Amino acid sequence: xxxxxxxxxxxxxxxxxxxxxxxxxxxxxxxxxxxxxxxxxxxxxxxxxxxxxxxxxxxxxxxxxxxxxxxxxxxxxxxxxxxxxxxxxxxxxxxxxxxxxxxxxxxxxxxxxxxxxxxxxxxxxxxxxxxxxxxxxxxxxxxxxxxxxxxxxxxxxxxxxxxxxxxxxxxxxxxxxxxxxxxxxxxxxxxxxxxxxxxxxxxxxxxxxxxxxxxxxxxxxxxxxxxxxxxxxxxxxxxxxxxxxxxxxxxxxxxxxxxxxxxxxxxxxxxxxxxxxxxxxxxxxxxxxxxxxxxxxxxxxxxxxxxxxxxxxxxxxxxxxxxxxxxxxxxxxxxxxxxxxxxxxxxxxxxxxxxxxxxxxx
Length: 362
Prior knowledge:
The protein has about 350 residues and is an alpha/beta fold. Helix content is about 35%, strand content about 15%. The chain is built from ten helices and 15 strands. The strands form five sheets. It has a seven-stranded mixed beta sheet with strand order 2-12-11-10-7-3-4, sandwiched between helices. Strand 5 (about 120-125) and strand 6 form a beta hairpin.
């Protein structure tokens, strides 16, 4: 019996994608071996690799001027790899800081070269909102502007276009990539760890404008240059083949579902139901994120005491509602409702939250 998985990553995967892998695990397409055993240079794996790329391009409507890369290291590695590629000597980069992961991205850039905060919404030790346009000060000579589209720790998300003032725009979209139709034309480089909306841990998807990749530095190790992987179709060295195979399965499921417009409708309804349940209980459940900054992917809330929060997690786990404890750095409670989390799972959580509130809230 499968549980209701609200984990922040690795996260829930579509059952159809898992069952397809189950059917093909031992013998992939009558080849007599698993996809995990196939060479990344062979025809069998190349079909998977090409299909994953084509599905992603079709879902996003990508033109020929963008490259798709399947990389390793997770977003944390690319916090450093991005400035290594695109922050040239004598330049400075701008970072809009809206949470813990954008803090880490800025810190890594500062280890590589010169980088500064163009805006920060840190207030009283927490991030509860996205900055207004007036709060953002972009250096007109910045090598690039970096943003984090969705903040898993604090449950905030960008819901408006980001004006980079004509500078190259880079976004870490790890926790909300493909949650809705997204125009990537304003972005020069987008990257997302797969383990939230796209597949298992172990692979990161990057989509970049070809002309921007070509501007990358040539004085860093070959394997760390994005231009290297772009030219080699992400096959310069052995990629995480099984993880990419699973991404293919998830992308096929998403396409069959009706694409990004269809998943957006589902995601918005999941978010609406869950926030409504929290807001309906007076001050018992408190969602700290500002209303206009609330994340559709990571719903964060607090209870009057930490003891009640721990009791909720314990009782929810016993009922098959898994992964509700907040990130260790901020505490509280969190439900990650990524693409693969069903409406039925959200409804089960809503029912539990109402029952818990009735039992504890006068």
